[in-house]
Write a structure and sequence with these properties.
Layout: H1 3-28, H2 36-56, H3 59-86
Helix pairs in contact: 1-3, 2-3
Length: 118
């Protein structure tokens, strides 16, 4: 099999993976499971791969990495855009008082679990 065919198949599968993540992020409008730092590093590595493919005149690699770079930068932008909406600010880090000072509160004690010994 010709190497260029293998290159185009590899490039196609890689592009499909990146585009599917991009489309999923656009549809769900959530970036909770995505790391900004990893996406930035992906984009940076793809910049180098585009430069390498350009210098090596490798068309399948150049096409794949260019499309992946665009989608990776798009995901980066979406993460940054929704970043403030995702995180919740916690104001009070102290645990609640024990026992509560509210006279309506009822404290229920639970007996320790009994285990059968063999």
């Amino acid at each position: 099999m010709d190497n260029s065919i293998i290159g185009y198949v590899a490039a196609s599968t890689s592009v499909i993976a990146f585009i599917s993540q991009f489309v999923h992020t656009l549809h769900t409008k959530t970036t909770v499971g995505l790391s900004l730092y990893r996406t930035i590093l992906d984009s940076l590595s793809l910049i180098f791969w585009v430069a390498y493919a350009t210098r090596a005149s490798d068309t399948p690699l150049l096409l794949a990495t260019s499309v992946e770079l665009l989608t990776s930068v798009g995901v980066c932008i979406i993460i940054l855009k929704h970043r403030n909406n995702t995180f919740v600010k916690v104001i009070n880090y102290s645990p609640p008082r024990t026992p509560p000072e509210d006279p309506k509160a009822i404290i229920i004690e639970v007996a320790p679990e009994r285990r059968n010994s063999i």
